[in-house]
Write a structure and sequence with these properties.
156 residues, alpha+beta, Arc Repressor Mutant, subunit A, Dna Ligase, domain 1, 2 domains, 3-stranded mixed beta sheet, two-stranded antiparallel ribbon, 6 helices, 5 strands, 44% helix
């Protein structure tokens, strides 16, 4: 998937595979392939993006196997997913992109903020409802500054 000389990539892959082992999971080719794809894409890929990337390197791995692998990696605490509005969920390595997602309802631009900005709100919600929210799992809809300033929303 990458050049063997890319030592940082190899180190990251080995670290994640060790964490998977430490969590009691078996190492399989699909799990390695999905981890590599998440490192390569290093954005917010959808499951379909991951399927396409894995298929280009491991055509024998079936789409359903990749979906099951994402579930297993999520259970192991290695992968997180977030819903950015009305589209498909997107995935990233847990811990590597722990942030709040803010999506412009007009132009779909995505911004990131530290999860800590919601600490006061999380505390109040828990005190009033007994629920602890997971704000990293969903995106907060908003209107970006460009769309607010624009006379035609969505044109930014």
């Amino acid at each position: 998937m990458t050049e063997p000389s890319d030592q940082a990539f190899a180190d990251q892959t080995q670290d994640l595979l060790q964490r998977l082992r430490d969590a009691g999971h078996r190492l399989t080719t699909p799990r390695r392939a999905v981890i590599e794809a998440l490192l390569i894409l290093d954005t917010h890929p959808t499951a379909d993006d991951l399927v396409a990337n894995v298929a280009s390197h491991y055509p024998e791995i079936h789409r359903s196997t990749i979906y099951r692998t994402l579930d297993a990696l999520s259970e192991a605490g290695l992968v997180s997913h977030v819903h950015l509005g009305h589209g498909s969920a997107v995935y990233h390595l847990a811990g590597s992109h722990d942030h709040l997602h803010i999506v412009c309802s007009s132009c779909d631009r995505v911004a990131h903020a530290d999860l800590g900005v919601l600490d006061d709100a999380k505390r109040k919600i828990q005190q009033r409802t007994g629920f602890e929210i997971n704000p990293g799992h969903f995106a907060i809809p908003a209107i970006c500054a460009d769309c607010l300033e624009s006379s035609s929303p969505g044109a930014c």
